[in-house]
Write the structure tokens for this entry.
Amino acid sequence: MFLARVFTLYPEIFPGPLNKGLYGKAMSENIWDLKTINIRDYTTDKHKTVDDTPYGGGSGMLIKPDVLGSSLDKNLKTGEKIIYFSPKGKLFNQSIAKKISKLSVINLICGSFEGVDQRVIDSRNIEEVSIGDFVLSGGETAVFIFLDAVLRLIPGVVGNNYSIEEESFENGLLEYPQYTKPQIWEKKSVPEVLLSGDHAKIKDWRLSQSEAITRDRRPDLWQKYKKD
């Protein structure tokens, strides 16, 4: 079973959409589980203070190292992977999602305010990961996106594994256009090749479409694809 622990100040928002549909079914079948850790429970003062002002000045507040460190130490086992969501982190992609899906446990830290004390990141061997070049008000949203990408790669979560293999990024390209019934809609028809029944031609058409879309919309991926 795959276990995701989420360290957050807002445990009430979890599991949220992750207990619906495919993920909810997989959770009920013990394929995966989610445990939330309320960081505030590891404070030691009567006010349950989790943050303080940064040394050196600056706006905002930082999560205190003693609070976060204690919450990690009292819940993790040696060697478990820890990820903290941060704009400074490695950019999340499908390759990382695949690697995480092969683990049995992942620990995810939701940042709040201006982030966390750097000493916790350094001392607990925490990997920083970014879900994109933008700023969120907290890491909870990032957790949902991260787990959505990872959980669907775990065997048994998605019924049709072929659908995963045919998706964007699996072969280094963006996905080709998809069509369904009706055959003609608003005077627009489905491409003839998809109606031909010729699987070789369909495969070639889909590849050419994926290449054209990737070349046009993601030149960075296209260059990598050509090198590989």
